[in-house]
Amino acid sequence: MELRQLEYFIAVVEEANFTRAAERVHISQSGVSAQIRQLERDLGATLIDRSGRTATLTPAGAAALEHARAALASAEAMRRAVDDVRELIRGRLVVGMIIGCTITPLFDALAAFHHAHPGVEIALVEGNSDRLIERVQLGQADIALIGAIGTPAGLDALTIISERLVAAVPPDHPLAGRQRVALADISSYPLVCLPEGTGIRTVFDKACRANGTRPDIALEASAPDAIADLAIRGLGVAILSESMTAKHDGRLKALTIDDIETPATLALIWKPVHSPALRELLVHTRKAFTRPS
Which residues contact residue 33 at a Cβ distance below 8 angstroms, ignoring those fewer than 6 apart? Predict the structure, then answer.
């Protein structure tokens, strides 16, 4: 008894016809017939009634059908299990990251995964959030860290940071004596922002449109630290998140923007159906981001 004989038997039963079954399994009709006859000889019983216009099960065939399907399902499960192990021995993961963002727990997760599965190659690619979302949706990246508003269509997500936007100014700026500002207040000054397609810029642009404000975007930079440095040098009001500004405490003052309530978020995104390697990386990632501080 061979697995292919069980496959041909099931095909004939489901197609109720030897010709259609042969087309389905991509061999000749005589080949299908010969293999099923051999299966019947091995079992000592006729499985298919060939006397009518359609192929039908005999009582013995009906008794065998469930077990044939179970045997093929078990063989396929074994193949998947071996493939899973093989992919964790020799596989590849493409991890996307927004430009200029350093998230230590993600690096911890990558390091832990690499230690556990050293045979899996890890490739890092950078880009803005829009491009990274597209990469994941097209299968060009397995997982990506993006700045996002909501979960992109067709993907799963894990939010790791959610915080408000702030306007950051140096101590000698006219707004530095205030704790809070409105979009109208900062729009009278040149602004320094992340490029379009990034999460923070998307939140900011959406708030400006809703408010009817037309900001003066004087300078753009891909790295938050570059934006902060430009603001420190008096070249514009920086639009950043709270944590991005906190690292420059003393040189920049963060002002709450009252009319931007939508938070800027950082999230990991991936396709719902994923490889064993990505499944293992997600285990390490969740551990890294839920570890007590």
Answer: 18
Give yes or no on whether 3-88 and 90-159+266-290 have one common fold.
no
CB within 8 Å of 90: residues ≥ 6 apart: 119, 120
Q: Note the CATH architecture for domain 90-159+266-290.
A: 3-Layer(aba) Sandwich (3.40)
pLDDT, tens digit, for every residue of 60-70?
A: 989 999 999 99
For the full predicted model, state whether its pTM sits above 0.85: no
Pick the CATH number of 165-262 from 3.40.190.290, 3.40.50.1100, 3.40.50.1240, 1.10.260.40: 3.40.190.290
| Measured distance CA(10)–CA(129) in Å, rounded | 48
Output DSSP code: residue 252.
Answer: B
Instruction: Give the three-class secondary structure for 119.
Output: coil
Write phi, then psi, for 191 (nearest 5 degrees): -115, 150
Q: How far is CA 40 from the centre of its chain?
A: 48
Cβ atoms of residues 122 and 114 within 8 Å: yes
Report whether 208 contacts 183 (CB < 8 A): yes
Contacts of 215 (CB under 8 A, 6+ apart): 183, 186, 187, 191, 204, 208
Q: Which residue has the higher pLDDT, 264 or 231?
A: 231
How confident is the model at residue 75, as a pLDDT? 85
- Name the fold adopted by 3-88: Arc Repressor Mutant, subunit A (1.10.10)
Q: Are 166 and 172 in contact (CB under 8 A)?
A: no
Pairing of strands 180-181, 253-257: parallel
Q: Where are the alpha helices (DSSP H) in 57-213?
A: 59-89, 104-116, 129-138, 183-186, 199-211
Distance of alpha carbon 217 from alpha carbon 234, whole angstroms: 14
Mean pLDDT of 239-245: 89
